[in-house]
Amino acid sequence: MTLHQKQSVATVLLLVLLTACSSGSDMQKQSAPSIQTESTQAPSAQDTAESERLGTKWGDDVNSEVTTVDLRRTSNEPIEQMQVRYADKSYTGRAVNSMSLLAGKVDFSMESDSGKLSLYRDNGSYYVQGKSGQAYRLVYHNNSDNTYEIVASVDGINVLDGSAASRYDSGYVLNPNDDLVIEGFRKSQSSVASFIFSKPDAAYAANTNAGSISNTGVIGTVIYELYNPTEPRLSQPQAFPADDGYAKPPQ
Questions:
Q1: What phi, psi does 37 have (nearest 5°)?
Q2: Which of 46, 131, 210, 246 has minimal Cβ neighbours within 10 Å of its Cβ?
Q3: Which sign does the torsion angle of CA 8, 10, 11, 17 carry?
Q4: 225: β partners
Q5: How far is it, in rounded angstroms, from Cα 87 to Cα 3?
Q6: Per-10-residue mean pLDDT, the chain, length 251
């Protein structure tokens, strides 16, 4: 049974019901401001010509069940973030099968119906070559005993709800020593529209009010660590335990 078949038949994706950790119960979604600066650098070999640009369109309906769980983030800020740029381009750099995240605790890769897509690493950035009409999937493997939340975006769109992506959105649960395969943009609790490489003007981001054609060609991931609030957590040694909850009087 292939990984794709295993996901479709046996794996149930878990959707995080986001509850803020104790220090951030009123946390609001935030969007990082876009800062435009004039580039003075010479053209890079990784730069994409207009004819090579790709986006991701809304593809075939694929069965994918989700359930809701009550887990909490250990921090209001992600513990890892990365992005991969893609185009119909022969990228240069070192070809790798997967990207190591969180010092090897999580691996990220991409696959098509015919197998893994090579990622190209160059000067700390990652790239992947796609072909218009080709289906692909995002694959995360957890090498640890920790539970993580994966917040993924494609072309600046949150893959979970179709909104303009934010680092603080809710995401999918990646269970300990398990795989998470994201096959498309979520349509309902039971199905997704598969990711299909396309020309930018046919991309989902270019044809929804929440998206922009200018954001096509990029895949983003942020990771949070999660814990179950109903289970006891290992306490850390305290130098001044009597001060817990102590409010300093006003001066």
A1: -130, 150
A2: 246
A3: positive
A4: 148
A5: 25
A6: 36 36 36 41 77 96 93 96 96 95 98 96 95 98 98 98 96 97 96 98 97 98 95 76 61 52
For the four alpha carbons of 181, 182, 184 and 190, in that order, the dihedral sign comes to: positive
Beta strands in the chain (DSSP E): 13-19, 55-63, 66-73, 80-87, 94-96, 99-101, 106-112, 115-117, 119-122, 125-129, 135-142, 147-154, 157-158, 172-174, 179-182, 184-186, 191-198, 218-227
What is the reported pTM? 0.78
Q: Which of 102, 107, 206 is nearest to 154 (CA)?
A: 206
Q: Which tokens hold the place of 216? A: 């096509």
Q: Please state, in angstroms and as integers, the Cα–Cα distance from residue 113 to each residue in 22, 57, 180, following that order.
A: 43, 16, 16
- The secondary structure of 193-249 as a DSSP string is EEEEEE-GGGSGGGGSTT--GGGTTEEEEEEEEEE-TTS--PPPP-SSGGGTTPPPP
